[in-house]
Amino acid sequence: METINTTKNIMIVGVGGQGTLLTSRVLGGVMLQAGYDVKVSEVHGMAQRGGSVVTFVRFGEKVAEPVVEEGQADVLIAFEKLEAMRYAHYLKKDGVLILNDQRIDPIPVIIGAAKYPDDIIETLEKANNVIKIDAAKEARKLGNDKTFNIIVLGLAARYMDFSKEEWLKVIEETVPKKTIEINKKAFEIGYEMYSN
Amino acid sequence: MIKKQIMLGNDAFARGAWEAGVKVSSAYPGTPSTEISESLAKYNEVYAEWAPNEKVALEVAIGASYSGVRSLAVMKHVGLNVAADPLYSASYTGVNGGLVIIVADDPGIYSSQNNQDTRAVARAAKIPVIEPSDSNEAKEFMKFAYELSEKYDTPVIVRSTARLSHSQDVVDLMDRIEVEDKPYEKQISKYVLTPGNAVNRHVEVLNRNIKLQEEGSEFPVNRVEYNDLSMGIITSGIPYQYVKEALPKASVLKLGLVNPLPKKLIEEFASKVDKLYIFEELDPIIEEQVRSWGIDAVGKEIFNVPGEYSVNLIKRVIKGEEPNIPKSYEVPGRPPVLCPGCPHRSTYHVLNKLKLHGAGDIGCYTLGAAPPQSVLDTTLCMGSSISTYHGMEKAKGREFTKDWVAVIGDSTFMHTGINSLTNMVYNQSTGIVLILDNSTTAMTGHQDNPATGTTLKGDHTYQIDFSKICKAIGVPNVEVVNAFDLEGLTKTIKEAREKEELTVIISKAPCALLNKEVTKQYKVNKDLCKKCGACLKPGCPAITKLEDGKVFINDTMCNACGLCFSLCKFSAIELEELQDRRTYL
Lengths: 196, 585
Description:
The complex is a heterodimer of chains A (196) and B (585). Chain A is α/β, with parallel strands linked by helices and 196 residues long.
């Protein structure tokens, strides 16, 4: 049972309504296509109404547990800054945090009962390998706000060992037909933002 | 060649029902079970419907079974309480065509009002329970459940949990088994539960349970994995996956039949391992039975957490390892909120201004208990708002309840609220019942109900009219108001409070998420904004206060409901027509 060590753990966190479910479907599809065993675990129901949402994606030769536990994530994809901070401790020591530089105030902040933390990015950078992206800006340039999640995924793809073609093929099979072209473009934008 | 596909647990349950040859399915939506019915509705060979509640759903499935076809009812754990009446008696009548009830528990309480262990209900009703551990088993065990149902003449519960229902993994797609309809035979001693017949059926049920317990040890859904014999673990469902991850070398008895327990198999396994653990989420159902057979086992005294289990839990309490977890940050919570443009926000704004207490119910509008709405004082179970409100009036009189209203959604009213309203009329209650009609069952993901005019299969149907129903029951005052008409709603409620008789107010506007395309939005004219904060009060997530005290409307979130526009006294909020249609996130 040495396969446990080869299992990779990906997490997608964000705010209900940001499209974490679609992103996890693409991730799962790519891994299955590459011949891996895959498990994806999502949260539905009440939490989706603007609450904090988290999706786990695990792949390897044989995957048992469907969730990623604290200190286990290889890649943490955060669609929102506060959510990145909430789940940062799920990252492994050498894990990568793909952070979309967007702020969405939670209700305690809106009604003045709590303060949105300052300097989230600076704080996280002290302890983690943080890759920043302003995907909302890129999505607006592309002409469809909704594609920001696929732009983030394009950048995150650089931290997983699959070819661009594999990703684009699964995007084509997963997203609604009318949005295939724009989502493929969105993916390429994120993919090209990688600098090393 | 077998086709492999990655599939959500709930889609796999539906696929399993289809492959098993199911012809009729009835359900009421409830997280985490909802997608099963939506998925099943896509198969042409299956008649699938939304029923107004779980009791109706189960009775529909029982009727289909009596007539001789394989049938299904689907619900969440609390739904099984509503369906308990037909459930306990269907155990006595048995089946003709196979009858399966999928019940999804929610051990993490992600979207429920309590925690319950369906195995406990099944034990009391003496109904066998099958529990899969992944999507492929979800599909395959469905077929086994139908065989079991027909062979042993019993309804069968297939138990899921939120984690199984909402995890995707790889399944092998197979063809549908074409099951021939069974002939119907009149059998009064079996299907008519008069006391005389029930006495005999009770004996049959007890014998069936003993037979299942004996023969269950041979069922292919159970699996013994002998490995290192110093440690043996009995488990089932999703907890099995945690065991495999944390203790790959341990011996495991993975139970697929969790009621009645396969005693011989468990005794044999227990005799071969040095130390026996029982790893089950929620109640110690397996543990207490195994111990009662004189077998020494460790369970809840170390796995003493109320919610979902984990790999880290096993590592801590069995291996004595402290997992290497980095320090977490203190951050503000992000509880679920009413969406931008939600009509409930507008209704609650009025109720809040009138300083009214609300007897609440189950749905998105349960969020009206939290600040800044802060209207609801109670939320118990489906349909309870109206009856608890009535109880308060009977206990403390009209003086007490004149500061109260009952608040219930359209689908919940059809579910069981209507019974309670009948009771208010019959027993001469006064007061105000608000039906928040957003034309959908929103919280579970926008399912249709008898008041939406569409069936689960997408067919057009008669749309039940709340106003007519309330009048037919005998409610003396029935008013319909647009949920965004703040003045109209305030006036209607104030007038109703003066009356010494019952008023139903239907506060109507569609759920904001039903409108997939947004063609306009509101924006703030910063020159006119006086920083008064009136628009911030209802807590719309699309509105943010900037550092200079002025407000900003997030253009990717605004759904143009106009509530902030109505509240701004300085005309600082302006409507903007969008050139490109935007799809709501």
